[in-house]
Amino acid sequence: MLELYHNDMSVCAAKVRLVLAEKNLEAKLHHFNLRKGDQFAPEYLRLNPNGVVPTLIHDGRAVIESTLIAEYLDEAFPAPPLRPADLADRAVMRMFANIPDQGLHAACGTISTVVAFRHQFLALSPEELKRNIEETPDPARRERKRLGIEKGLDAPFVPDALRVYDGALARMEARLDHGKPWLMGEQFTLADIGLTPYVTRLAHLHFDGMWAKRYLPFDAARFPTKPFRPGKVIRIAHAARNPLKGTDAIVRAIESLSSRFPLELVLIRNMSYESALAAKFSCDIFIDQLTNEGGWGYGMSSVEALAMGIPVITNIPDRMLTYIGDHPFIVADTATLAQVLDDCLSDWEILQAAATRGVEWVLSRHEIQKVGDALYGHYRRLDWCQ
């Protein structure tokens, strides 16, 4: 028999419910009111000393921590499998499934508290609120909760929380660049289950409009900017993990121009994120996607290149132009790339202007403080903060 102590809005509990649903397992549900402090009841603390949800009970034995519960359920009820059979792939899956435990969960709690949950806490009586905060076992989590409830979006750790979300989203986007439906390719795994509730929470908090417009928060300070000064050989980078981005057309275009210009194509694939950044930084031009298969025309890989001072060639769909308006991208598709490259390589000022505008554009649209200011404005319009 399975029992689950949970809360409807708990991202950790959502992970476990997703596993149960995927495996078509029924469990007796015990819903806790976390604002009232149900999770601090002595009888529950005997099951879960951390005073959090979820807790799974299987045949009378307690299993705690959502990531561990998910793996436990996949081992105890192996059909359908939610982990790759290949051990190396399984290790990669665990790396993504563990992202919440490496800071994303705390960041999600911070943002959720300052934007939405604080209003529920503030509706408690002063005595109830004081007791709820004091009963939080972990001192660091207790202090974050207190400041988040008191100060809302003005709490000092909000920018850091956005940076953590930024990093997690960038890692997911880079992984999904393979063009397949799930983080591990064709198989839906615990990696997708572990991260889905954290992306869903963004939509619950009305962040989805920001993501749809692609103004993801970007910590530009993490990326060095270089002047546009090509060497004797012009290095052109392309992230080639997804062939639907037009890799074949890029290869053909560069081959057709190599007799007139000293060109070197750097295909970024099958390397770590750090190695990919180093390869990109060593190049003079970055080509993103030439088809509209990617949907938006550019992603965080392009933003990284722009922040480094590298001009970006990509195909921006018309529907995206409605959102972003003026932009620094040099636009091309599979049919026009050779001519666009020819024009750029024949007139350095085109590339120089794109490199300069790219840095400015990232700082004005994607830089984390700018996105934070936009979020503040959004929530002020909703009367969620002053």
Write the CATH architecture name of the largest domain: 3-Layer(aba) Sandwich
Return the average pLDDT rounded to an integer. 88
Report strand order across the widest sheet: 6-5-7-8-9
Count of separate DSSP helical elements: 17
CATH class of the largest domain: Alpha Beta
Low-confidence stretches: none
SSE ordering? EHEHEEHHHHHHHHEHEHEHEHEHHH
From the 3D structure, determine the CATH topology of the largest domain.
Rossmann fold
How would the global form be characterised?
A: elongated
Helix content: 40-55%
Strand percent estimate = 5-15%
Please give the number of β-strands: 9
Distance between the terminal alpha carbons, to the nearest Å? 49 Å
SS content category: alpha/beta
Task: Describe what you observe in this structure.
By secondary structure, the chain is an alpha/beta fold. The chain folds into three domains: 2-82, Glutaredoxin, CATH 3.40.30.10; 97-212, no CATH class; 220-366, 3-Layer(aba) Sandwich (Rossmann fold), CATH 3.40.50. It contains 17 helices and nine strands. It has helices spanning 11-22, 42-47, 66-76, 87-97, 104-122, 126-134, 139-151, 158-175, 190-204, 208-212, 247-257, 273-281, 300-307, 318-324, 337-346, 348-365, 368-381, and strands at residues 2-6, 28-31, 55-58, 61-64, 234-239, 263-268, 285-287, 312-314, 330-331. The strands form two sheets. Strands 6-5-7-8-9 form a five-stranded parallel β-sheet, sandwiched between helices. Strands 2-1-3-4 form a four-stranded mixed β-sheet, covered by helices on one side. Strand 7 (285-287), helix 13 (300-307) and strand 8 (312-314) form a beta-alpha-beta unit. Helix 4 packs parallel to helix 9 (190-204) and helix 5 (104-122) crosses helix 7 (139-151).
